[in-house]
Amino acid sequence: VWVDAATQIFFSLGPGFGVLLAFASYNKFHNNVYKDALATSLINCCTSFVSGFVIFSVLGYMSHKSGKPINEVVDEGPGLVFVVYPEAIATMPGSTFWAIIFFMMLLTLGLDSSFGGSEAVITALSDEFPIIGRNRKVFVAVLFSVDFFVGLACCTQGGFFVFSVLDRYAAGYSILFAVFCEAIAVSWIYGIERLQEDIREMIGFAPGIYWRTCLKFFAPAFIGIIIVYGLINYKPLSASDPDAFPWWTDVIGWLMAGSSMVMIPFVALYKLMEVPGPASISQRLRILTTPWRDQQVTVGNGVRSETNQIILNSDTPAPDQV
Q1: What angle do helix axes 33-66 and 2-13 make, rounded to 10 degrees?
Q2: What is the pTM for the complete model shown?
Q3: Which residues pair with 304 in a beta bridge?
Q4: Is 106 annotated in some ligand binding site?
Q5: Is 113 annotated as a binding-site member?
Q6: Is 259 known as a binding-site position?
Q7: What is the pLDDT of residues 28-82, one digit of tens each?
Q8: Buried-most residue among 35, 108, 191, 215 (CB within 10 A)?
């Protein structure tokens, strides 16, 4: 439950997916990110609270109409959206109108979510590869065409089972792991003090002690506890219905989840090996974990991080020795 709840928060707010980074890259430098973060989180919580009334009022209505306990009426995932809710709407006065409104809402919600997620991919690749930025329209057309054909797998006769595997493994532990790494990188490697000064430079004041404590201690610890607790209580998808989900569906699911998680240590190892010049592992780590703007000696003489350029030369004196 905790893993699902955390995943839902990430889906609704967008951290860990790159969506917020992509959208924030279009902001002005002095945009009040503090106010935006508070307003977005508050609106999201209020929306979730109101949607709870909508969902459970319908479930209670279905329980009353069918004479069954509510725990027998409740379903999750696509079953709730495409089975339970339409059944409830069909018994209401003006059912056709409400059905049109409901499925239009699902359509627009899906389109809006795909726009945000795709923008993260488009912005990142456009910044990394200028040729994509110069041919943005062509790239967007190709990207959404690929998304469309991949999504057809969920529209086949066994699409419900494909969706169930994706729902369980595609963005559960993988997104938690990504956000955990982000929290460690920002709070402990980049440093909460540097982040505090960055925000002060942008909006004129720094976050208070509460926010700094949450970012540095509570957020990484809470996410780590959720991951460990979820793994301890993990039950394979095949255990819920062995006939519908054979053992190899769990293997495919974990391979799919691991494909995104493994990129973090893989890229870290690649960057570690990419550091030029003769340097020990500890020197390479200190160089890679030193922010580019910090013009300071990182490891002894001649090993320093200086204005976005790494210089490794044992004959070059350190700045404090010049």
Answers
A1: 130
A2: 0.78
A3: 297, 311
A4: no
A5: yes
A6: no
A7: 999 998 898 899 889 988 888 888 887 788 778 778 777 778 777 666 666 677 7
A8: 215
